[in-house]
Amino acid sequence: MATGELGDMGGYYFRFLPQKTFQSLSSKEITSRLRQWSMLGRIKAQAFGFDQTFQAYRKDDFVMAFFKDPNVIPNLKLLSDSSGQWITLGFASGRLRKI
After folding, report:
1. How far apart (Å, rounded) are the C-alpha atoms in residues 43 and 41?
2. Which residues, including other chains, have CB under 8 Å from residue 19's CB and lie 6 or more apart?
3. Per-residue CA distances from 99 to 67, 90, 93 (Å)
4. Residue 4, Cα to own-chain centre: how many angstroms?
5. Per-residue pLDDT reduced to its tens digit, 56-84
6. The model's pTM
7. Beta strands in the chain, from DSSP E residues, in sequence order
């Protein structure tokens, strides 16, 4: 690959940021509302960083690179429809439809 040329997935590289917290989901008021709507424990926020400036015209490349990135697959949590348990994208990838 020539210098400056993008890789197969658009050249994006992602990193999981497990230490990132979202105070908006843990405030007393929000926790109360989530409990009221039976959503407490059924919604999570996760942070991932990436190494390039986001360019809206390349959004499709960005999304494809995100879901295929080796740092995203074992860390991205999904709520299973069948069991109601949190699973990782890597566990569920066999059941995902090819985009």
Report:
1. 6
2. none
3. 10, 16, 12
4. 27
5. 999 999 999 999 999 999 999 988 888 88
6. 0.69
7. 14-16, 48-50, 77-79, 86-88
